[in-house]
Amino acid sequence: MALFGRARTATGAGVLATLVLILVFGNEIYTEWVQRHADVNTVWGYFLRILAWPAWSITYSDSLRNLLARDIRAMLLLLFVALVLAVAGAAAVSGGARFVIGWASLVFGSALAALVTTFINSSPTWLGALGAATQGSAYGLWVGWIVGIAVATAKGK
User: Fold this and answer.
1) Domain residue limits at 142
2) Maximum Cα–Cα distance across the chain
3) Which of 5, 107, 123, 136 is geometrically suited to a Cys-Cys bond with 114, CB 3.0 to 4.6 A?
């Protein structure tokens, strides 16, 4: 956690934590591994699959639109987390409040990124967008505590 504690601002720490999560657990190597090896009927397997939600890739096997939607979703997640933290993070002075705001930034950011990018996919629907936002918010709920810790341990506002 020393890496995140050295960030100059709470926003910077939250964005850095989110970027690390996206790069480490959203890449093709991890997402393909987790699809083959993580058992969805176990808690650990469920968590490993949740970590892979902001999947991005360089190669594609289905349509180019779906590839772009996944990649843009990961970028928008980072942008929306930065926006939420920039707006709400400055108001939080205690570590507990920063933790909650950091966690919530990932919940809101991932749900909004999923909702927006659903309409880039081939054959988008409103029901599909709502389902994607639900999956995104689940990612934020179960992984957002990591961003919350990073924001809470940051030195500046």
Assistant:
1) 2-152
2) 47
3) 136
CA 12 to each of CA 8, 21, 66, 132, 147: distance values in angstroms, whole numbers, following the listed order? 7, 14, 30, 27, 11
The answer to whether position 86 is within a domain reads: yes
Q: How many domains does the chain have?
A: 1
Own/partner pairs, 93-100, CB within 8 angstroms, 24+ separation: 93/157, 95/152, 95/153, 96/152, 98/10, 98/148, 98/151, 98/152, 98/154, 99/145, 99/148, 99/149, 99/151, 99/152, 100/148
Confidence class of residue 61 from pLDDT cuts 50, 70 and 90? Answer: low
pLDDT category of residue 5 using cuts at 50, 70 and 90:
very low
Tokens of 58: 């360089």
- Name residue, tokens 């990591």: 146
CB 57 within 8 A of CB 70: yes
Domain presence at residue 157: no
